């Protein structure tokens, strides 16, 4: 029985800042951002958007196309939680009009949360093959102003419908994973901005990549050559090339020419270059980018995935793209969304950064900004109020 992704959609805010603008303000060479880390723009989140609206905006095309019946599980993966108790999934459940016979939970393990959620969704669908599961991953990557992590900020969400007879990707049962208690990236409850030891985090990312790959290889008996493309976790897109180089070195194979590396990796990087880091969503945003941008059809091709969550948890897994998948993509919507975003000045970016969502306990009403179908209208009696346009 095949189980995997029946539909996949992604969403990012309607505001964006060119990293050349940030480089000028910080007195940095723009090439440090554009070439050095492989980022061109970063999403900017207006006050009336949060992880709930981002995720619901990503999911709406999926549920409208597939229908809401038989969705018995909604898992929301995030490290940008809005409540210490209530799952963000419950808010989305209402906004999306899902049936009451649907379990709703929130999952956290840094950027690995969506992969853990996907595994749980697959297990439920395997036990109840007539049902479907909806996995949402949404995050807002936020660091201190003028910090080393600032140019990797971003925001976005991915929605994935899991079912039997998937139309997009059939997941392979084999996987390799590795966990280790480290402090490379974290965000205490008293902080809005993450703390990160960047060099250490990159080193652990690449180390656990090999650990996870070796476990996957032992379970699957596959080699690098058995995978047509690769989608890596992308705190910044340049790490995809570092990761592939590390895999080739570990396998004792010659690193392919630049043109071949581009074919294997680059189509999966295009969206992330334009949105910045989306944490739990980013490896699946990369897959969406690959599906939308690969010039040749991917039917029957195996894709390798590496998911990493600081703290840390790593997994390498794979799946086979299904025949006719192009008929079930949201490519035009994704491209139109990216092409119509509104550029912001540095002053506008800083004003939005410093405003955020008030935490003074008072009631607030948020002016409408450009957004998708759903927005955060305000806060009243400590309760978030969401509305559909």
Would you give an account of this structure?
There is one protein chain. The model has no long low-confidence stretch (mean pLDDT 97). Helices cover 35% and strands 26% of the residues. 47% of the residues are buried. The protein has one domain: Thiolase/Chalcone synthase (Peroxisomal Thiolase, Chain A, domain 1, 3-Layer(aba) Sandwich), CATH 3.40.47. The strands form 4 sheets. The protein has a 9-stranded mixed sheet with strand order 5-4-6-7-1-8-13-12-11, sandwiched between helices. It has a 3-stranded mixed sheet with strand order 3-2-14. It has a 3-stranded antiparallel sheet with strand order 15-16-17, with helices on one face. The chain is an alpha+beta fold. It is globular.
What keywords describe this structure?
389 residues, alpha+beta, Peroxisomal Thiolase, Chain A, domain 1, nine-stranded mixed β-sheet, three-stranded mixed β-sheet, 12 helices, 17 strands, 35% helix, 26% strand
Helix content bin: 25-40%
Integer average pLDDT: 97
Q: Calculate Rg over CA atoms.
A: 20 Å
- Major sheet description: 9 strands, mixed
Superfamily (CATH H level) name: Thiolase/Chalcone synthase
Multimer state:
single chain
Strand content: 25-35%
Strand arrangement, major sheet: 5-4-6-7-1-8-13-12-11
Count of distinct strands: 17
How widely separated are the two ends? 40 Å
The CATH architecture name reads: 3-Layer(aba) Sandwich
Task: Give me the CATH fold name.
Answer: Peroxisomal Thiolase, Chain A, domain 1
Tally the helices: 12
């Amino acid at each position: 029985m095949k189980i995997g992704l029946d539909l996949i959609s992604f969403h990012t805010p309607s505001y964006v800042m060119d990293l050349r603008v940030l480089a000028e303000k910080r007195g940095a060479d723009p090439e440090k951002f554009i070439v050095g880390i492989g980022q061109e723009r970063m999403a900017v989140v207006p006050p009336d958007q949060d992880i709930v609206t981002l995720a619901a905006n990503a999911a709406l095309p999926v549920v409208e196309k597939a229908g809401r019946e038989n969705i018995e599980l909604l898992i929301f993966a995030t490290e940008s939680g809005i409540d210490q108790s209530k799952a963000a999934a419950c808010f989305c459940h209402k906004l999306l009009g899902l049936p009451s016979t649907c379990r709703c939970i929130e999952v956290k393990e840094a950027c690995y949360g969506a992969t853990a959620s996907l595994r749980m969704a697959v297990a439920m669908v395997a036990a109840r093959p007539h049902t479907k599961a909806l996995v949402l991953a949404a995050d807002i990557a936020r660091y201190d102003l003028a910090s080393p992590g600032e140019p990797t900020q971003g925001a976005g969400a991915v929605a994935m419908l899991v079912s039997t007879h998937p139309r997009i990707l059939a997941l392979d049962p084999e996987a390799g994973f590795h966990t280790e208690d480290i402090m490379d990236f974290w965000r205490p409850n008293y902080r809005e901005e993450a703390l990160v030891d960047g060099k250490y985090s990159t080193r652990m990312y690449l180390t656990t990549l090999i650990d996870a790959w070796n476990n996957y290889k032992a379970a699957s008996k596959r080699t690098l050559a058995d995978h047509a493309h690769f989608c890596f976790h992308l705190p910044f897109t340049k790490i995809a090339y570092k990761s592939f180089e590390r895999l080739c070195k570990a396998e004792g194979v010659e690193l392919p020419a630049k043109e071949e590396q581009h074919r294997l990796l680059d189509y999966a990087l295009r969206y992330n270059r334009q949105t910045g880091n989306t944490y739990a969503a980013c490896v699946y945003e990369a897959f969406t980018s690959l599906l939308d941008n690969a010039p040749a059809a991917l039917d029957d091709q195996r894709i390798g995935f590496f998911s990493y969550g600081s703290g840390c948890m790593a997994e390498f897994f794979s799946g086979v793209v299904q025949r006719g998948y192009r008929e079930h993509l949201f490519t035009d919507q994704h491209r139109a969304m990216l092409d119509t975003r509104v550029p912001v000045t540095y002053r506008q970016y800083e004003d939005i950064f410093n405003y955020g969502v008030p935490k003074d306990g008072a009631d607030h009403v948020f002016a409408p900004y450009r957004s998708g179908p759903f927005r955060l209208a305000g806060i009243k009696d400590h309760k978030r109020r969401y509305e559909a346009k």
